[in-house]
Amino acid sequence: MNTIIKKGIACLALGALITVSSCKKFLDVNVDPNNPTKVSAANRLVGAITTSNGAALWRGSREVAGLTQYGVTKLLTGTNLNAETWRFTASYFCWQNTYVYTMPNIIDLINLGEEEGSPCFVGAGKTLLAMNFGMLADQYGAIVIDEFYNGKTQLSLTPKMQDQQTAYQRIDKLLDDAIVAFDNPVNKTTLNSAAGDILFQGDVSKWKRFAWALKARYLNHLSKKSDLYKPAKIIEACTKAFNADGMDAEFPYLPNGLQTDENPWYSWGGFVVSSTNPNDGGYNPRYFTWSQFFVNMLTSLPVTNTMVKDPRISRIMKPALSDGQYRGLRSGGGLVGGQGILANGQNGDAAKTNGNDYGSFSNSGFYTKQTSPFPFITYSEVKLIEAEARLRSGDINGALTAYEEGVKSNMRKLGVTQAEIASYWSAQLTDGLAAHFANLTQGLSHIMRQKYITLCLNPETWVDMRRSDFSQAIYGPSLKRPLNLNTVIFDANNDNQWIRGMVYETNEQTRNPDNVGDNSEKYRLLTPLWWDKN
Amino acid sequence: MKRKLLMLFWCTLVLTTQVMAQQITVTGKVTSADDGLPLPGVSVKIKGKTGGVSTDTEGRYSIKAESNETLVFSFIGTVSQEIAVNGAKVINVKLKQDSKTLNEVAVTAFGVKQEIRSLGFSTQNVKAQEIVDSQQPNIVNALQGKVAGVQITNSSGAAGSSANIMIRGGSSLSGNNQPLFILDGIPVDNSTPVGQGGFAASVGPASNRAVDINPEDIETITVLKGPAAAALYGIRAASGAVVITTKKGSGGAARVTYQNSFSFDHVNKLPEMQSQFKQGEQGVYSATAQNSWGPAFAPGEKVYDNLGNFFKNAFAQTHDVSVSGSSDLTHYYTSASLVDQGSIVDNSTFKKKSFRINADTKVGEKLTVGGNANYVRTDREYLSQGSANGIMGVLYWPRNLDMKDYLNPDGSQKILNTTGNDNPYWTIQNKPFTSNVNRIIAQGNLDYNPFSFLNFSYRLGTDYYTESFKSIRMPGTVETDALKGAIAESLGTTQITTSTAILTGKKKIGSDINLSLSIGNNIEMSSAQVVNSASANFIDPTFASINNTRSQDRTTSESLTRRRIFSWFGDFNADWKGIAYLNFKGRNDWSSTLPVKDQSFFYPSVSASVILTDLLKELGAKSDDRIFSYGKIRAAFSNVGKDAAPYSLSTALATLTNSFTINPRGFIINSNNAFGNPSLVPEFTRAFEAGVDLRFIKNRFGIDITYYNSKSDNQILITRTPPSSGSFLATLNGGSIQNRGVEIVLNTKPITGGDFRWSIDVNFAHNTSTVKELPGKLDRIEISDAWAAANVAQGAAFLGGSLFGINGNVWKRNAQGQLLLDNKGYPQVSVILNNLGDRNPKFNAGITNTFNYKDFMFSFMVDVRVGGKVFNATENALVRSGLSTKTLDRGNKVFDGIIESTGAQNTLSVPLNQNYYQTIYANQGYDFVEDGGWTRLRYATLTYNMPTKYLGRIKIKGLSFSATGRNLILITKYSGIDPEVSGSGAGVGGSGSFGFDNLGVPATKGFDVGLKLTF
Lengths: 534, 1015
Known about the structure:
A: mainly alpha, B: 1015 residues, five-stranded mixed sheet, 47% strand, globular
């Protein structure tokens, strides 16, 4: 019996020894076999692009498209109306989508590009990062940059904000760095090696032009800052940016995939309705139809407000089922408000309150179909930026040339025929285009109204409107504040008081209160951002 | 009054007499002379012979003996009795308590039984009879009111719904706050999945997996309340442990027991609805309106009681057969049970089949080997809840319509309009959730005593189950993401395997001091694997299968989490004359979930107890126990560690798609998960407890008081971070929670002896869980799984406040507290959420009275909860639908407040219309917070045991009948359904979802009848 005990104890001791020595291996199970923590830059590029579009730009456009009066909702009840009537609160979520769902992927892409010795990914990452920071800075002003996730150290629990001027310097620097990175010919892997470059299929030269285009855009935002506004630098950036059709930076949506592969303006973004009859109770998409203001942009010419139909209207909108006319609602008025203010500033037909008097917003044309691409920045925008810079620097002929190309390239993109373009252009000329350009405001009216059309649904339009101080001289007499305005914040009696910025999101306010500062709606919505002041 | 089976027992050898006589089988029942309760585990031997039998759970035994022999009955804590057989076939015995000792035992670590008198911390036992009395299929619910400091919240009235259990509050801000479940020495899974099939937790709350355990198999449950008690179990001990021991088999010859019960349930409480206004919008009747914002009912117009008519009577039955017995070497117990439970709504069922075999045998003199195996098959059907499209959509149904009229002639659903809700009757038939679980819990163990001073025990066990979950939404629903049908499935495999080896040595120093030291090794491996798949748009609209969808509509994903823990532990005990006890425990864990350099962590605990009465006697200051029968003081200090969740150290990439990310077409950071943290260190909970246990008048009155204070620091916490950090959630060390409380257990026996006996047991507990620190600038930790009422409120822990707060929307007010109104004169809802109340009750008390009269036993428990707020999201839904009595005022009102834009006192009169109630009033939470306290008759049960004298003739050993009423009386100020609710089920961590009444199946009251037959 004794020997059994001894053997037993010996076995136990041996067993214990073995278990201790193999303990390390035994415990080595803390790696998720299904979800990697690291994949190559080539495999992260597509995510950086899709989230820039789907999480950031979509969420930065969804509500702003109501504010900038592209889309109008149907009902006067419910939350759809909030954006259009400027009821923005700390529940506006563009901030979190950009910071959480989008940009950490881009930071990882930059880090991986550096680590792997493939600067092209660094360039792509910095370009996308600059675009996202730019959109945030233009909606909120001060933003977090330096203490944002860096992919290397722990998350900061109370990230500091940078003022907008610093943000703009960082954006410009990111783009300079991106251009340098694109110029580096030594890459271990190429951009499209994992078929992830869904913007340019690995064409680094186009990426570089994309970066230059963004540089031009953000330099151009400084038009109110007389000491910082440098038209020559903008023109230089424009020349190095997109220089022909077919190289726009735009997001390609897919057919026949998951619903989240589709353009959100078509389906999942609030446009799935359970009825086909626009007069049904169940037919209440996020935006019901296009605004009369947008219809005016496409049916009248700047300065004179002469009625000339832009051929793009049939590519963007659908006419009313009832009478085949293009008609829009007034922002904030809903369907019961009837037709919006006409191009000449007079009221539209208030009796048009049947759903069939308006074409639908969703699935109506170039921008809101299932696979409509979403443009980040286009050749057309670049040419119109150049036109503005040239106009402001006194180069009227140069401005006209750039303007013409900016307008026509957008028309070509939308599939407008050469004959239609020629006819439209001759109407422009007849209406006194060249003479208008001799006057800065009139010239800007042409440029901004064309930008409004070419930037359809892009939040960049809000920047232009603020730079133009929502001027009727620029946008025509039909630009008016919405009906059912949020008068808790906005003075009902001051028609010149417009919305200038967004409220930081509630999660930022409650978790990072010291850095957010005054986040009252009154302060945020009414206070112009840094570039919006002289 | 509490006694336990005693395994080892010594008997003196006496001369055997060689008499030729007739061998007969003697049977009988052993009861306590003090309270008349049956005594299980009493050793019955034939004087002068080795071997023998022990009594079963009802005190019965059966032994073969010669008619001239003498039986010896002995049981720890009682005076042994010897009775000559003299040809008697039935010998019933009453054993008297040996008042010197109170030797109730508790199962502490790893199946080790210790006398409670030696323990320096508080534990409480719940016996088989008490579990059976409560008639709860879910073992967690059976503990209601039985143990001071244990708070149980059943989540809903649906069959198989989960029950949340917390001991002494919560120690974790974001993690699991429920105790470890130990079944026969091995940890078993009691998790509750949160949000299966892509549904929010509130839509389809799953069962807690302890529901698989068959209550009839249980011999006893020991609740180890604090970290000190549970320290040897390691990392989850901070939340305590529920230690379940199943029946072993005893009583000699095989006996077969069959029992059944039949239950009838009905909804016990429903909210009141208005019957004044009918279907419509903006005050105008509309046949397509979903809500009741129409005009007043015309006089005499039919008002349907859709809510009252919706719930039917539920029927349930259970059948249980067991065979058990023992010889001097072997014990065995085997059982089969069947539960078939319906609900108060159709297609909501819980079915369970359980098979168990327990056996152990002695191999030679020194070695005992044993094992058990349990197979369980659990099938549950349940229904969508938590929203207007769930079964509580009945709260939205206009009362001028009969909701039962829900089908069109072509068989499709009659809907009010396409943006309305699914008819709940249609939902019952067309949107089922099903869960099927196959589970095996098995283990083997050996116990080796080579010398009287040395013991070695080893146990290897596993708990393995698969769950297949399926949710179906048939075409024809108005849910926009499932218009053409949708299906979601998951297949999960969960396993916990543990190995425990313990070597124990004992030494006596002199005659007064006993020492024992145990050294143990524990290895735990757990894994959980889930494969999810989902699809939509059925090709054939009548056939629900994932195969009936196009491949581009299908998504699948897989997850596997693994955790391994390797541990050494030591347990040192010393006692002096059985009067003073001292215990040291220490455990070192190596956890796979922590960074390699911090993988190892050690934590000690120390406890001591002194039996005052015995000490006084030792000192000669006390001679008898007639007045002060027993007194004990105890104290314990402990420190227990905790590791992280698997994969918390790094940030995972994922290919998930949702409407925030759109389809990423490749890997992106999984922002639904917390950001990883490579520098986590283990968290520790330090706890102190002290108590006294005093008994008077020959133990007829006993009081046990415990005070405790515990603090969990530097928690491994999943916390919300500002979005600009790059994540919503991050794992980090930080934050601390303090729990303080008092537990009082009273046991009195007002009437003892004789035919009539009465005993009262009271369990009282008060606890506060206070958040002492939070990381960063956070002032609260929000639990998004417990959102309710269209995101008006959620569970949250507040800095400086309760762990169990309600975070919700409030009216916008100025610094003076005046309402800030908009320009029209309506109040506004602030975007910043506030603490609306504490869901933690002030105290809980369970009072059980037991009466015995001859062969009748009547027992009832009154359950009292004082305080504890409930967020009435169900009422909020009623406000939105226009059926709440809060919406009866549809006139005009001048709100007392300040117009925010002008600062002027408001004078504007505004209509209290649909727009106000739906978009303003319903979006604030204050008016939906109510006191959730209650006093209820949790159960009352009457049992009749057929006397043995009648049974002997019909060859039946035992027959009893019982009738039980559950929840028959509920007194509460709460306006809605039964305030014992948990909107998102028991799976929600941290602050939890209890106290959220969120459109779930209401709780029930009912009664059971059953019989128990032993032969």
